[in-house]
Design brief:
Distance between the termini: 33 Å
Shape: globular
CATH topology of the largest domain: Aspartate Aminotransferase, domain 2
Strand content: 5-15%
Structural class: alpha/beta
Number of domains: 2
Strand order of the largest sheet: 2-8-7-6-5-3-4
CATH class of the largest domain: Alpha Beta
Number of helices: 14
Amino acid sequence: MMMNLTFEASSEFAARLDGDDPLGPLRSEFYIPRSPTRRDAIYFTGNSLGLQPKRTRAYIGEELDDWARLGVEGHLHARHPWLPYHEFVTEPLARVVGAKPIEVVAMNSLTTDLHLLMVSFYRPTSDRFKIVIEKGAFPSDQYAVESQLRFHGYHPSTALIELAPRDGESTLGTDDILDAMDRDGDSVALVMLGGVNYYTGQAFDIRRITEAGHRKGCIVGFDLAHAAGNLKLELHDAGVDFAAWCSYKYLNAGPGAIAGIFVHEKHARSFDLPRFAGWWGHDKATRFLMGPDFVPLPGAEGWQLSNPPIFQLAALRASLELFDKAGMEALRTKSELLTGYLAFLLTQIETDRISVITPSDPAERGCQLSIRVRNADKSLFAEITEKGVIADWREPDVIRVAPVPLYNSFTDVFGFYEILSECLT
């Protein structure tokens, strides 16, 4: 695909882009929801819940069959033995987030993982105790960070630094983040930002933020809920200390799916780090000797608590096979073109009822565009929903739309433009 295209607002142009799309056949690997007004709904909420790969049912069914056939023996003798099952997704996950296999593991849920990681990596002292987050972070991040501060005896009013956009702006400037680190970094124990802000769709410069935090002696972590499977991440090379993500958005592992963590290789054998321990994080060679002393595994696996849910891992394995089939480089290339086409089409609508608050630079966004609606008029969202668009509304005034390169098409994007235009006239 050529990135330097002159876009056209026509269904014929969208169809030509689809015809030239090497990833187009992947759409047939997913179930597309139906709409009362059109054969396939225009599904633009992969940033909230990814679509179901068609192979998922078979993968989960295989584990159900092995459970019925083998009972407990499935731990060793299932077609995909359950005892090491989490290892089947380790290398594909590492490829998605730009990590080494020792640095990632699938486990628990996102906020649980963030808490477990902060137990190890938020180590406040009398001089260095503050946590930096972005103002307007996803509420769960806010709650988790504030509760960690209170647990350690600090009050958010004095120990929490919230980075806010400048007056009149919707997103944080990278230089403003770096300036804040230079100004306050000596008192900061932990920087924990989102990879992509859930509301604005802004993608943060993970490498530069990490470098700035490390220059001031801070630990740097990221919530990648809206970044994993969306951006081309390079967590190892960027030097990020830790990260966590859910797998039910862009990773398409199903509602409430198992999450994942990254712990940089430099911490792989930092066994002196405090952690909340569980037996699945114990050394595999002696785990079943049931000894009294916890011996952590090196790398991210050492943060595991319990044996993982096999059916959830089966669903994640099904989706990750499609990521490997596509490759993150190709997915990111299509995503920039797909979202770029959507951004272009929105400029063709002559109206003052909407504006896009997501950065216009493709390097500063993923596949989501956040459309602000004047006067927080939710009736526009209701109208496009009635016409077959599945997007979402985020209070107080934003419609989030996310054309996902694995299964959305340029024809989807043009169809959305037609519906939105009709509703705005």
